[in-house]
Write a structure and sequence with these properties.
The strands form seven sheets. Strands 25, 26, 27, 28, 29, 30, 31, 32, 33 and 34 form a ten-stranded mixed β-sheet that branches. Strands 2-1-24-23 form a four-stranded antiparallel β-sheet, with no helix packed on it. It is mainly beta and 459 residues long.
Length: 459
């Protein structure tokens, strides 16, 4: 009954807010009561925060490491459990304002955890490693993916081979394929990749480590960052231990993941938090997907920018706590629309967005000057895999009508005699008013878009 009530609350209509103070909250895993909370940055800062837990000094005392979200400088701050500030440093050039992702783990087996930083959406996929004093360690940094990729990188530190040294898992953010790559402490790619979800899924990956079976090796947990809130748990050899929906399938805001032993049985559970657009609902699962009774709301119900979560022994009592902080979207699209298509007549470009993130961009051919494509805001009215126009005696693959006047989006047309419109017409206004896409992009958009998806055409 508790799960059902929680899920209903997640989608209850409230006056949503997109930001809150950058508060770090620590919850007791035994009774889910709030133990401590503190502001990681100035209370007026609207970019959110991300937290991690680790023993930076090797003295058996864990610290809480915090980084800002979008809009803040690259300031890494280290706090004690009571919220007192210990130290800090800047991970990137002080002009960088896209936000930072964090992971903490012992990469060289010396008993001291390192701090791993990565860039968020809008930054190049740059990963850096620091010691507890903020000095670069092992490498000056490396690119987890192609340097021109700007979807950001989510990072985790897992011991994948049981040797006491953790590896770095780098997962692509929104706009990239569902890919994660494994690197050693020096930033060297180890030839190990994971593709946990469909290649068509471009909402990005969230990632965490957990030891769910008591073995020497850690397991890797992946979540969909933007999209249906699927979670998958992997062994290092690629075996899938579990896959499940953390929230209702109709929720498309994605899920953040963490791992930790929250029931003190010696095995880690998977802890999830609803991401963009969802209420601040934190849940926990066994690795194979069975929900546990540990379920609560970390912030006020109206907060809908997403909740970030980590698990660790924050107060050094030998029992894990759940640590949460508010997320903040760093997007280039509209966040008031869950999904939409934008067609720019002047650029002859089509872009489509999900959760405010750009999922794809394609060249198009819109209406010629004498037969212009209508300007305005519309919605997909119907879809057909292959429509026929009797007026022009041609076929329009992957047809999506968005205007009652008969205008639609479709692949380059094919005439009854077998002639196919040339790809060289893309980028030129030559259609009869419809929006033409190339071979491949039309099918991709058709498979993604649903009837009712908003279509915005601007000149």
């Amino acid at each position: 009954m508790a799960v059902l009530l929680g899920t209903v609350f997640l989608f209850q209509k409230v006056q949503a807010t997109e930001y809150r103070q950058p508060e770090v909250k620590i919850f007791n895993t035994q009774n889910l009561q709030l133990e401590k909370s503190f502001l990681a940055f100035d209370g007026a800062f609207k970019g959110g925060a991300v937290a991690a837990i680790g023993d930076l000094g090797g003295d058996g005392q864990n610290e809480i490491i915090v980084a800002p979200g979008p809009g803040g400088g690259p300031h890494i701050k280290i706090f004690r459990y009571d919220g007192s500030y210990a130290s800090g440093f800047f991970a990137y050039n002080t002009e960088y304002r896209k936000g930072i992702n964090l992971a903490v783990g012992d990469l060289d087996g010396d008993g001291k955890d390192e701090i791993i930083t990565s860039t968020r959406y809008g930054g190049t996929p740059h990963v850096r490693i620091f010691d507890g004093y903020g000095y670069p360690k092992f490498t000056w940094g490396f690119f987890a993916f192609a340097e021109d990729f700007q979807g950001g990188v989510n990072v985790a530190a897992c011991d994948l081979n049981g040797d006491g040294k953790k590896e770095i898992i780098a997962a692509a953010g929104p706009g990239g394929g569902p890919q994660a790559r494994v690197f050693n402490q020096a930033g060297e790619y180890l030839g190990l990749d994971f593709y946990p979800f469909s290649p068509d899924e471009k909402g990005g990956l969230t990632v965490a480590c957990a030891n769910v079976d008591g073995g020497l090796e850690d397991e890797i947990t992946f979540g969909v960052q933007v999209g249906e809130p699927w979670v998958k748990v992997y062994k290092a050899n690629g075996i899938i231990l579990g896959q499940f929906l953390a929230y209702d399938q109709n929720f498309k805001g994605g899920v953040n993941v963490a791992g930790g032993d929250i029931d003190q049985d010696g095995l880690d559970e998977i802890v999830t938090a609803a991401n963009y657009g969802g209420g601040p609902h934190v849940r926990s699962f066994e690795a194979y997907g069975l929900a546990t009774p540990k379920s609560f709301f970390a912030f006020e119900a109206e907060f809908r920018a997403g909740t970030l979560v980590t698990v660790g022994d924050a107060n050094n009592d030998g029992i894990d706590e759940i640590v949460v902080s508010p997320n903040r979207r760093s997007t280039e699209g509209r966040t008031d629309l869950a999904e939409y298509i934008e067609i720019d007549i002047s650029e002859q470009k089509l872009r489509y967005y999900e959760g405010g993130y750009l999922r794809g961009e394609f060249a198009v051919s819109t209406g010629k000057w004498s037969m212009p494509t209508p300007i305005g805001t519309f919605a997909i009215m119907n879809k057909m895999p292959r429509a026929y126009s009797g007026k022009y005696n041609l076929y329009m693959p992957y047809w999506m009508q968005f205007h009652p006047g008969g205008y639609g989006i479709h692949e380059l047309p094919e005439w009854a005699n077998g002639y196919k419109e040339g790809q060289n017409h893309l980028g030129i206004r030559v259609s009869h008013g419809c929006v033409r896409l190339g071979i491949g992009p039309a099918q991709e958009l058709y498979n993604w878009a649903e009837v009712g998806t908003v279509v915005i055409v601007k000149d």
